[in-house]
Design a protein that fits this description.
The complex is a heterodimer of chains A (about 90) and B (about 130). Chain A is an alpha+beta fold and about 90 residues long. Chain A has three helices and three strands; from the N terminus they run αββαβα. In chain A, helix 1 crosses helix 2. Classes of the chains: A alpha+beta (about 90), B alpha/beta (about 130). At the A-B interface, helix 2 of A face strand 5 and helix 4 of B.
Chain lengths: ~90, ~130
């Protein structure tokens, strides 16, 4: 179980332009779906974007505060194209 | 093979796969694990580590990636990790990726089911095979 603001701040401390949206998949606050929009993903293929985030979350996953995550990573341009941000 | 008779064509592709996947077996198991992984990865340009085989996938996510690869009509090799626990465990550490299936293109991990699905839907997957 983890505070969502802690996760959001942790990601933002590495990617300062990030827009982070977290959803609780199971109601137990340890299976999370996380949407991250950041230009730090520019020019990186999807797996590298996901691994950047998994590296950031490593400590939280290691202690089992977060049990599982589903990631969605987008650059700002892609998020706009998909209508996920203005 | 007609799509009507193909239970793994869950994406409903109009294209009849002609390329498809071929299971591979490793020949030399005496080498150190990292050497074995590297030589496997070097053995084919598109390599899917999966549970089961293209004809008989043993996991829904593996079946899904197989049907995506068939839908984009590339020729690829597959390795059944259920038959090799050393490779199964070793690959997780080698690529810092905890789950299967894992798709490699030119020796680089491209993704598991979620990523491959998203890249396929966004048209990015075909770009990787060019």
């Amino acid at each position: 179980m983890v505070e969502f603001t802690t996760v959001e701040n942790l990601i933002k401390s590495h990617l300062d332009d990030a827009i982070v949206k977290i959803h609780d998949l199971t109601g137990t606050a340890d299976h999370l779906s996380i949407l991250i929009i950041s230009d730090a993903f520019k020019g990186k293929i999807l797996i590298d974007q996901h691994q950047m985030i998994m590296d950031i979350l490593k400590e939280k996953l290691g202690t089992n505060e977060i049990h599982a995550v589903q990631l969605k990573t987008l650059t700002k341009e892609k998020a706009q194209a998909k209508g996920l941000m203005e | 093979m007609s799509n009507d008779n193909n239970p793994f064509n869950i994406l409903g592709s109009e294209k009849v796969p002609v390329a498809g996947g071929t299971p591979v077996n490793e020949t030399d198991r005496s080498l150190p694990l990292e050497e074995r992984i590297k030589s496997l990865l070097a053995s084919s340009e598109i390599l899917l580590f999966m549970k089961g085989t293209p004809d008989m996938p043993m996991c829904g996510f593996s079946a899904n990636v197989v049907s995506i690869l068939n839908a984009v009509n590339v020729s690829y090799k597959t390795f059944n990790i259920l038959e090799d626990m050393d490779i199964r465990q070793g690959l997780k550490e080698y690529s810092n990726w905890p789950t299967f299936p894992q798709l490699y293109v030119k020796g680089k991990l491209i993704g598991g089911n979620d990523i491959i699905m998203e890249m396929y839907e966004d048209g990015e997957l075909v770009e990787i095979f060019k």
